[in-house]
TrEMBL record:
SUPFAM superfamilies, A to Z: P-loop containing nucleoside triphosphate hydrolases
InterPro entries hit by this protein: AAA+_ATPase, ABC_transporter-like_ATP-bd, ABC_transporter-like_CS, P-loop_NTPase
Top-level taxon: Bacteria
UniProt protein name: ABC transporter ATP-binding protein
Domain ABC transporter: 6-230
Length: 301
């Protein structure tokens, strides 16, 4: 079992009279990718800034068994981060900025390696004032990964990236994870998190709604059957009259509910003269799972 690399205990943060983080508790295992999910204003970026000791907070944060605070940054020597948008020097090239922040031994090699890993060769020697959003984002990620950190915090790292660059970054994150690097990633692109995250922390209004593995979150998701018949309109009417839950009428989609039996459904349709041309089972995705979690939380409130 992997060791706990990050531990957050009873984390609170207020700005004036507004409490934005309320008793946050979660851990991150070494070598895992953790997805931090929540709506805008939920508190994700504030959590990341607290971990980095950028702002004061109440509670306890430890990285590799060393405590972090606004006055104690020693544990952050092994941390790389991209928070919000990368702060770049507009009149330096990408390569020059990487050289500026490269530390330790083999500084030149680290710079060349990260340029190749992120496929930045064609713009690394341009001044960053001419960079597109995607180029800036790549350089920001490159700065976070530059010094081979043990722990990497990325806030919306896919912003501005085209599909090819997004896949390349996703593959790089998975590659770095295999070397033991731990990642905490916030992203609104849930389909990308679903592909790479081992664990998920869902934040809503400053509180942890759920902290679980990606597999467990998805396994609790609803399942569906997509049907194609010789008369979808009539089939829909028959199923609705028999209290089946139809979630999409244009593509006849039936939700799997308690005591659901696909055999009973098929027998019902066949008995009414409906011919089944095709049937597919479909699992809900991370977005569906997230909405279910937030709906349950809203019901409790």
């Amino acid at each position: 079992m992997n060791s706990i690399f990050l531990r957050i205990e009873d984390l609170h943060k207020s700005f004036g009279n507004k409490e934005v983080l309320k008793s946050i508790n979660f851990t991150a295992q070494q070598g895992h990718i953790i997805g931090l999910i929540g709506a805008n204003g939920a508190g994700k970026t504030t959590i990341m800034k607290a971990i980095l000791g950028i702002l004061s907070f109440q509670g306890k944060i430890t990285i590799n068994n060393q405590e972090v605070s606004i006055n104690q940054h020693q544990p952050l020597q092994s941390v790389g981060a991209l928070i919000e948008y990368p702060g770049l020097y507009p009149y330096l090239t990408g390569r020059e900025q990487l050289k500026l922040f490269s530390i330790g031994q083999n500084r030149e090699k680290k710079v060349e390696d990260i340029i190749k890993k992120l496929r930045m060769e064609h713009f690394a020697d341009q001044k960053t004032k001419s960079y597109s959003l995607g180029m800036k984002q790549k350089l920001g990620v490159g700065l976070a990964l530059l010094n081979n950190p043990q722990f990497v915090i990325l806030d919306e790292p896919m912003n501005g990236l085209d599909p090819k660059a997004t896949k390349e970054l996703r593959d790089l994150i998975v590659q770095e994870k295999k070397t033991g690097t731990t990642f905490l990633i916030s992203s609104h692109i849930l389909s990308e998190l679903q592909r790479i995250a081992d664990d998920v922390i869902v934040i809503d209004h400053g509180s942890v709604v759920t902290a679980t593995t990606m597999n467990e979150l998805l396994s609790a998701n609803r399942k569906f059957y997509l049907l194609e018949t010789n008369n979808n309109k009539l089939a829909t009417d028959i199923l609705l009259k028999n209290r089946y839950q139809i979630v999409n009428k244009s593509i006849l989609t039936v939700a799997v509910t308690k005591n659901f039996s696909i055999n009973n459904l098929l027998q019902l349709l066949l008995s009414q003269g409906i011919r089944i041309n095709d049937i597919k089972q479909q699992d809900g995705d991370l977005e569906e799972s997230l909405l279910q979690v937030l709906d349950k939380e809203g019901t409790k409130a």
